[in-house]
Amino acid sequence: MKKIEAIIRPHAVDDIREALLEEGFKGMTISEVKGFGRQKGHTEVYRGAEYQVDFLPKVKLEIVVSDNNVDSVVSTIIKFSKSGKVGDGKIFISTIDEVIRVRTEETGEDAL
Amino acid sequence: MKIDTGDTTWILISTALVMFMTPGLSLFYGGMVRQKNVLGTIMQSFIALGVVTIQWVIVGYSLSFGPDIKGIIGGFDWIGLKNVGFDPNPDYAATIPHQAFMMFQMMFAIITPALISGAFAERFKFSTYLLFVLLWSTFVYAPLSHWVWGVGGWLRSLGALDFAGGLVVHISSGVSALAAAIIIGKRKGHGHDHMPPHNLTMTLLGAALLWFGWYGFNGGSAVASGALAVTAFMTTHIAAASAVLSWLAIEWKLRGKPTLLGAASGAVAGLVAITPASGFVGPISAIIIGLGAGLLCFYGVTIKNKFGFDDSLDAVGVHGIGGSFGAIATGLFASKAINSAGADGLFFGNPSLILVQALSVLVAIVFAFVMTWIILKALDKTMGLRVSQTEEVEGLDLSQHGESGYIF
């Protein structure tokens, strides 16, 4: 099992959610996060006082899937997130040792 | 004296309009501070409605407008509003009940100390603030308003023109704000931490309420309904609109983007500058004064960076500088063709008015600065002006009032 963590532009998240549901994935977690990479931030000016805003709002989407589904999820995320400009985000993939569904105590891929 | 119902109606409406400027100011300021200080900032304006009302009834009105003592101060004859009844007082307003004039003036006394609070936003201790408002109203506002508006007041006798409070309200509060910003010192983290305004929608709503109330502030200062009230009403609106445009234009040119905070600030700058001139100038003069105020105050709010004081919400840059400009502009643009009870300014063939105006500005600046300095130094030694560092970090809302502005 793999966990896919994608830090993406906030506007892309609805399209990704719908596409993944259609592909049969049943859940995911998102959080509103802030950060920066190569995009850097922007400057705001209030009555001449300049503020450098370093951290920009992004959404972190987390989904745990079986190994053979990783490629399709990644390509769906890229399909809706990629604009070709800096700031499109990053995807991290890591191995998950165990999953347990609390309600039934099922484990492994049955719990996904 | 016969009471005129039209005049009385207009003054009562104007009184209510000016009353609403104080909550308007609280929103204007409240939006500009950080989220943790929104209630503390709003409170500093709003509480003036409580404190100054009682001060005004008991001593303030008598000291400001009571029978003159040597041009310096009003006497104690009207303490507790004794002898302030329904009969008109022909010295001030011959066609409305004396109490209506007293109430109208009360609203000016309320908003003036609240204006100062912009200079020391986000760090003033509430208990000390209450006493500061009381002392400032009694020892700064009362004498100054007597000099300029009281019958027998020495600046009034010299011929200084201040239609609706450029000297008494805006210069006095703006200069006191300077003294306060210097004495109390900078906010913790100033110049290092991010302190952007937390809600500019609130600030714009506040500016709009100020604009709305200003029709009463200036229009009502005719103390009658009729042509003069209309003149002041009109010039007030024109100057505000002009200053919005000029502030935005220069901001757009020099900083690349026209901001909403710039539009709101421009409106207030224009309103401040037209205040002393509003009943003495015509529409084209109002445009010039408004345009000038927008440009001047755009630069005015940057002075603090050069001199290194933390006038957090620009009470000095807008009210001190805009008010001074307006008082001088009155000496340039005033015309007897507009108001026969006024005087001609420099551009209408009378060079002497500008000298009187300049003198009155200088007197107001020195008096307000020195008195405020003394009051604040005394309070600093006894009660302390600032909240503790921990309280400042926590924010005024929680540390001073035990509540939060936003529960999401």
Name the chain pair with the biggest interface and residue counts per chain.
A-B, 7 and 14 residues
Number of strands of chain A: 6
Q: How do the SSEs of chain B run, as a string of H and E?
A: HHEEHHHHHHHHHHHHH
What order do the helices and strands of chain A follow?
EHEEEEHE
CATH architecture of chain A: 2-Layer Sandwich
Binned, the helix content of chain B reads 55-70%
What is the fourth-level CATH superfamily of chain B? Ammonium transporter AmtB like domains
Distance between the termini of chain A: 9 Å
How many domains would you count in the coordinates of chain A? 1
| Helical percentage of chain A | 10-25%
Instruction: Provide the number of structural domains of chain B.
Output: 1
Structural class of chain B: mainly alpha
Q: Note the gap between the termini of chain B.
A: 58 Å
> Which percent band covers the strand fraction of chain B?
under 5%
**Helical stretch count of chain A?**
2
- Trace the largest sheet of chain A across and list its strands: 2-5-1-6
Structural class of chain A: alpha+beta
Overview of the molecule:
The complex is a heterodimer of chains A (112) and B (408). With 112 residues, chain A is α+β, with helices and mostly antiparallel strands. Chain A has a single domain, classed as Alpha-Beta Plaits (2-Layer Sandwich), CATH 3.30.70. Chain A contains two helices and six strands. A four-stranded antiparallel β-sheet of chain A has the order 2-5-1-6, covered by helices on one side. Chain A has a two-stranded antiparallel ribbon with strand order 3-4. In chain A, a hairpin with a 2-residue loop joins strand 3 and strand 4 (49-53). With 408 residues, chain B is an all-alpha fold. Chain B has one domain: Ammonium transporter fold (Orthogonal Bundle), CATH 1.10.3430.10. Chain B has 15 helices and two strands. Chain B has helices spanning 5-30, 38-65, 98-116, 126-149, 154-158, 166-184, 200-219, 227-255, 260-274, 283-300, 303-307, 315-333, 352-382, 389-394, 396-401, and strands at residues 68-69, 73-74. The N and C termini of chain B lie far apart (58 Å). The model of chain B has no long low-confidence stretch (mean pLDDT 96). Chain A binds chain B through residues 44-49, 51, and chain B through 194-197, 255, 257, 259, 261-262, 265, 301-302, 305, 314.
